Amino acid sequence: MRADASQATLALALLVLGMVFLKAAWLDHHSSLFRLYSPPGLAIPASRQMQEELGGQVALLGYDLDPATVRQGGEVVVRLYWQALQPLGRDYSSYVHLTAGPEQTTFAASDATHPGYIPTTSWHSTLYTVDEQVVSIPAAAPPVAMQVRVGLYDRETGARLGETVLPETVHVLAQPALVTKRIPVRAPTRFGQDIRLLGYGVQRLGDEIGLTLYWQATAQPGQDYQVFVHMLDATGVMVGQDDGVPVGGLYPTSQWLPGQIIADRHRLAAPGSGEAVTLAVGLYDAASGQRLPALKPDGSAWPDNAMTIAVPER
How far apart are CA 111 and CA 151, in angstroms? Predict the structure, then answer.
């Protein structure tokens, strides 16, 4: 009898220890999956609360985003907290798209056939569903700030129930990281208060001139500026130009991450004769046309607020 009692006590102790281990190792880590009840219109575990309705049928109550800064080839976890506002008659799939540029091109995406592994026709309007998606960043994705677009769609027809943009962006950084010692030509120039041009690389590429500008913001710029690259002949006459939003229109200056080195590439048609030309570079406000002050390291101003770069001859 004593042996049986000892064995029973030992078994009970092992069971208790196993339950404690399970709670610490799994349940505590995933406890948000079980917190299905919250005050109306809220998802308590979400780090960011929202109240966005999609098609008048589903609400996005909140989200988690980790990390907000990621290198090319990395991953971002986006956790969405959905709640049906009424019984849903169709099964919807969810998606997460990372987009950038004036046309909101998608550079990374994730998709869930059943958000939270629960068909939407089974969603209850008093509960919320936790939809965790892992977005893989392609190695070739541009290193810019990207909007996070999320939504629901009918997988059979492709029709979207609705879409919303999260208030936070994901900053994709270059891999490997850009560092100042890798900049071909160091030419520190300050533009305005918050923007520095660290240097550049320039070369003739057949019938084109390739220019890469290496920018860095010391603080987040307060507005968007256009980059201008003007090609001047020996007499100072402009014979070519390339103006626009940095990084091919994908990275407005107001979105720049302070401290990030930004490689901004430009291409200009080279003069057919192979004559020597100079590039004038700067930033300006597109609305007013006013250029930002351009200052040399000694504090003196560049003429016309444009730093000049000599292009090597053939």
Answer: 10
